[in-house]
Amino acid sequence: MNYEIKIASELGVKPHQVQATIDLLDGGATVPFISRYRKEATGTLDEVQVAAIRDRIEQLRELDKRREAVFKSIEEQGKLTPELKKAIDAAETMAKLEDIYLPYKPKRRTKGTIAREKGLEPLAERVFTQTSFDLAAEANKYLNEELEVKSTEEALQGARDIIAEWINEKAEIREKMRKLFLEEGTFTSRVIPGKETEAIKYKDYFDWSEPIKTAPSHRVLAMRRGEKELFLMLDSCPEEGGALALLEREILADAANSAVDQVKLAIKDCYKRLLKPSMETEIRLLTKKKADEEAIKVFAENLRQLLLGAPLGEKSVLAIDPGFRTGCKLVCLGPQGQLLHYEAIFPHEPQRQTAAAGMTVKGLVDKFSIQAIAIGNGTAGRETEAFVKGLGLPKSVIVTMVNEAGASIYSASEVARNEFPDLDLTVRGAVSIGRRLMDPLAELVKIDPKSIGVGQYQHDVDQNALKNALDDTVMSAVNGVGVEVNTASKELLTYVSGLGPVLAQNIVEFRTENGPFTSRSQLKKVPRLGEKAFEQAAGFLRIQNAKHPLDRSAVHPERYELVEKMAHDLKASVSDLMSSEELRNRILLKNYVSETVGLPTLQDILEELAKPGRDPRETFEVFQFQEGVNSMTDLRVGIKLPGIVTNITAFGAFVDIGVHQDGLVHLSHLADRFVKDPNEIVAVAQKVQVTVLEVDIPRKRIGLSMKSDPFAERGKSPVKAPQKEKESSRESSMAEKLAQLKGKFR
C-alpha cells in the first residue's frame, strides 16, 4: 500500500515529505530530532506534522496486519473469492474490514446456527426470496420430532433467526446503520431510581438528552462516568422507527405476501437483538474515542503551557510548604537547587510563635543570601505570604506564591525517596515547591503528569493514549528548551531525544564518577551511548562551560565543521562569530548550501550563533494576589482581582484568586466576543484580571468573568455582597452551573 500518498493527501503535504519522515522514523529517529535537524529531508515539517505521520502510519500498519489475518482466515475456510479479496483490499477502516469479515468470523453457537443444525436454512432461503407461495405448507416440510422442530411456527421462527443473522452480517447494511446512529442517534441518560441523593453531582443528567454528533467530550465522559458508578442509565441510539424504516427500505421486497411478513418480523428481531446492541457498542466506542482525544488534547496543551512556565533561574531560594497545626516546613536551596538547610516554623494558630518564626526566616535570608521566597499555595498559603511580607525583608528579595499541585505526589515518590531518603515527606514537598519556582520544567518532569492537576477527566480516558500524548508533550517541551547535561536530573535526561531511562541513569553515574562533562563528544564514553543515541541527543544537550563554544548551543555537532568553515572564510573564530553581529551579517548562507544542508538549517545555525542556547520560555515576573482577599468570605460580587489560570477545560478556565478555591471563568465570560476554544484567550499559568460574578460559600463555587463589562447582559450593576447567612438560600443560575460543571470536572 502506498502509505505516503494516502497520508500526504490527508495531511495536505507532499508524498516525498511523508516518505522521508517514515524512513527517518523507521530508522529510529525521534519526532524532536526530525523536526529540528532534518528539515531538508522532510521539507521543514514541524513536530505536529511529524507526530501525525508517525501516528497515522502506525494505524495503517495495524489495519494491514488485521487485513492479512482476515485474508488468512477466509482462505483457510476455502471461501476467498476475487470479489471478496478486492473488497478486503479496499477497506480503509477497521470497522469496514470487520463488517466484511463478520459473515466468515468464527462464531459461538447462536440462534441462527441452532436453526441451521435443524436443517432450516433452505426454508430461510425460500422465505428470503419474498415471493408468493404457500408458507405453511413449505414450513411443514421441515417438521422433525428428532430435530425438535415440532410446529409450523417453530420452523418459521428458525428461518427468521437465520434471516436476521444474514441481515446483520450485510456490510452495506451495517455501514448505513452506523451512519444513522452517528447522525441521528441521541444520548439519553436517566438517574437510576432510588439513587437521586447519592448521584446529586450528576443532577444535570437525571433526565438528559442530546444528539450524539454534537455532544461535547466533557459531557460524554461525564455521562459515562455516571453510568460506570451505577448512578445513571445511558442509551445511545436513534429512534427505533427510523432504524426499522431504513432496514425495511433496504431489505423488503415491493410486494404483499406472507413471506414478506416473515422477513419483516426477522428485520425487527435483527434490529433489537443483533444490530442495535452491536451498533450501540460501536458508537459508544467511537464517541468515547473521540471524547478521549479531545480531553487528552486539552490535557496535553495545559501540560505544555505549565511545563514551559517562566523559570526564576539559578537563584538562592527559601521555600515554604505552609500549614497551620503542623507548622510551615522551610528549606533553603542553592542556585542549582541543592538542599542547604531545613526546619519547621510555627507562625500561625494554634502555636502562633510568630516572633520566633520571623527571626528564623530573617536569619536564614541573611545566612544563605536568599534572593527569592517561594510559598506553596495550599492550606495557610495566603496567611504565610502575609506573614513573610510583614517581616520587612529587603525589597530585593522576591516573595511569590507557587502552585504546589503534585508536590505531595513527588514527596512520596521513588524519585524523592532516592534523592532524600532520610527526610520527611513535607520537607521533600518544600524542596519541590522551591525548585518549581527556579525551573518548572526540570521539577515537573519528576511527577506523573496525571497528578499535576491540569487535566479534564484524565482518569476516564484511554490511559495508554493519555500516557503517549503526555510523554510526547513532555519530550517536546524538554527538547525545545534544551538540557544542561551537568546539572540535569535523571528524570529530565530521560525525556531527551534518543536517551530514555537507562542512558539517562548512565549519564548521571558517569558524571558522578568522572566529574562534569567538558564536551559533547565526551558523551560517547558513556556506557551504551552509541552513535545513534549520540546523533539523536547531542543537539538538545548543553554544556555551559565546554571548551568548544558550540557545545552550549543548539547547533548539532554534525554541523560544527560547517560553522568552523564559515568562521575560517571570514578569518575569524567560532567565538568571534557568536559575539559579533557584524561578522554574522557578512555570512552569505547560499555559499554553504549543499546536498544535505539547505537554507532552513543554515538559518537555524545563524540564529543559534546570535543567541546560543537561548531559553525560549518567557521571562519570570513576580505575581501578587490582592491583599486582604484571603478567603471566600472576603469576596464581593463585582470586585476585580488578579488571578492565575490553573486549568483549562472545554467549558472554560479555572483561576486561582488566592482564596484556596479556584473560580471558574465560563466559556461565555472569557472575552467580550464569542469564544469557541478557551485556548484562544488563556493559557495555564497566565496572569489575568477577573471580576467576581457569583459567590456560593456552602458549595465552594466562585463565578468569575474576564469581560470588560460582565454585568451588561443582566442590565444591572454589581450588587453588594450577600450576607453569609443568606448564602445557603441563594440559588443563582451561575452557581448552579458552577456546581454542575465543577462536579463533573472533579
UniProtKB/TrEMBL annotation:
InterPro entries: HHH_9, NA-bd_OB-fold, Ribos_protein_bS1-like, RNaseH-like_sf, RuvA_2-like, S1_domain, S1_Tex, Tex-like_central_region
Superkingdom classification of source: Bacteria
Biased composition (Basic and acidic residues): 710-734
Protein keywords: Coiled coil
Span of domain S1 motif: 638-707
Coiled coil: 149-183
Disordered as annotated region, ranges: 707-746
Protein name (Swiss-Prot/TrEMBL): Tex family protein
